[in-house]
Specification:
Blueprint lengths: L21 H11 L4 E6 L2 E9 L13 E5 L2 E7 L1 H22 L5 H14 L11 E9 L2 E7 L5 E3 L2 E4 L3 H8 L9 H14 L9 E9 L7 E2 L2 H20 L1
Antiparallel strand pairs: 1-2, 1-8, 2-9, 3-4, 4-5, 5-6, 6-7, 9-10
Amino acid sequence: MSSIGTGYDQSTTTFSPDGRVFQVEYASKAVDNSGTAIGVRCKDGVVMGVEKNKLSKMMVEGSNRRIFNVDKHSGMAISGLMADARQVVNHARKESANYYDFYGGDIPGNVLCDRIAGQMHAYTLYWYVRPFGASVLLASYTEDGPQLYAIEPSGLSYRFFATAVGKSKNAAKSALEKLDLSTLTCREAVVEVAKILYAQHDPAKDKPLEIELSWVCDESKRLHSFVPAALKAEAEAAAKAARAAMDED
């Protein structure tokens, strides 16, 4: 059977003869063409990192964020179409606020994940909408402990110890599998995530790289926030040194 739509890709309500929904597959392809996002659940929290290409020398550093706060104890890293992903973030914030208003407590990570996944799945069911062209990583640290989830454009969600989405996800996952996550601290993971992001970047071919790093851990008092500037600078220096050593080899 042909891998292209051949008429079955004009609506999310149409299955191909071999049981595929091409619109959802095309949305996943948009994610695969986007910058890499990495999440690592450590023994004391969760660390997330994303890569961004500097599209212009005139662009202000730190703009066009790809990591967002959902509530005090949760954050999201996104890969794919930014405009689509921001709508997912806004929905997550509404769900978190509604849960707090109704139950008087912070929304657990698994509940927030299920509600985001339900929203993304709903956009694959009707002919008058299209799937979100974005995947999200969700980090949460509530009474249930640190948790990391990944949610795909199809509405599928999984809980991970460590994962990656985006164009270099396979190489990043291979690097993550080599880490001892049972003993890794968030402070150590920040450096490892930066190294993995820089290792997938080719300065000769790709545009200049900018990375974002965030964590929700014991050191941050279980609050999701960006990694302190000093630690981020230290991690980037170590990542650039590792990349330079790799190029020399």
